Q: What sequence folds into this?
């Protein structure tokens, strides 16, 4: 049975697009209402730091590694930039895609300039790529840096992107990160909850957040989930973690009200077969509601898993 209820379809989705929207959301969440997002937008955000170096599989140096994982693993959607999808999706048509519409590098530091990440392409251009090539593009994504002197620009673009995506029957995911000289602690629970509330006000279907740090009690995440309302919160996977600890923390976040996960480096820095198994483990916890022990069996490839 579909987990997509009437209340999950925003009113700015036209009547003739509501069934399409439900189908897209249902595909992304496996009918559970919870999203396992495989995040592959770091080739811009972190340049080559995440794809080459000690502890990173040589497989990860080639962008196709991302598509190989996404095509063979259980995921809700694979989020990456338009250009990579245009270049690789012809050979990976089974992948459910989310097109990231803005990105910036990490070269310009906050001390030099307040963060600003502008829209690269219009939502309609994404729809054209989808329709002309019969691709499985289910939604779009965009990052907002709250606290930046340029937040007004990004808030305006985000609102317009969400609305236009809904008009076309697509889902909209917002990355909402407090960042800038005005922000002293990006992972403060109360501030992250504020970011979740902003994402809800912008009309996002899901909001990707840098969830409260280890020093914050996981129970405090309930404030974040409440602030998001009907929008789903996705916890960012962050830098490399021990697989069991990663899954345990994810399990706690979901129990505290998160509606999904967004993981990049912890997946794609692994060799292909290992990355696929870890995707399957994350999906099992996020979407199937599996236990950590069951997920670890999947990751290890234990017989009968």
A:
């Amino acid at each position: 049975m579909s987990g997509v209820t009437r209340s999950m379809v925003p009113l700015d989705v036209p009547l003739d697009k509501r069934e399409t929207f439900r189908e897209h959301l249902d595909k992304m969440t496996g009918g559970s209402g919870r999203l396992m997002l495989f995040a592959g937008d770091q080739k811009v955000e972190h340049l080559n730091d995440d794809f080459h170096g000690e502890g990173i599989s040589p497989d990860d140096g080639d962008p196709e590694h991302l598509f190989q994982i996404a095509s063979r693993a259980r995921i809700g959607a694979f989020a990456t930039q338009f250009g990579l999808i245009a270049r690789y999706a012809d050979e990976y048509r089974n992948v459910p895609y989310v097109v990231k519409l803005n990105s910036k590098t990490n070269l310009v530091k906050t001390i030099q300039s307040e963060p600003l990440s502008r829209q690269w392409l219009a939502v309609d251009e994404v729809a054209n790529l989808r329709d002309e090539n019969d691709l499985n593009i289910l939604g779009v994504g965009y990052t907002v840096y709250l606290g930046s002197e340029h937040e007004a620009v990004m808030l305006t673009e985000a609102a317009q992107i969400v609305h236009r995506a809904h008009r076309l029957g697509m889902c909209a995911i917002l990355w909402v990160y407090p960042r800038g000289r005005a922000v002293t602690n990006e992972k403060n629970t109360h501030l992250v909850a504020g970011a979740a509330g902003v994402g809800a006000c912008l009309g996002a279907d899901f909001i990707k957040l840098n969830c409260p740090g280890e020093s914050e009690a996981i129970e405090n995440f309930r404030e974040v989930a409440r602030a998001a309302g009907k929008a789903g919160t996705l916890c960012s996977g962050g830098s490399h973690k021990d697989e069991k600890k990663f899954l345990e923390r994810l399990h706690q976040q979901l129990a505290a009200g998160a509606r999904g996960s967004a993981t990049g480096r912890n997946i794609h820095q692994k060799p292909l077969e290992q990355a696929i198994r870890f995707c399957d483990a994350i999906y099992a916890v996020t979407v199937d509601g599996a236990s950590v022990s069951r997920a670890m069996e999947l990751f290890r490839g234990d017989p009968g898993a």
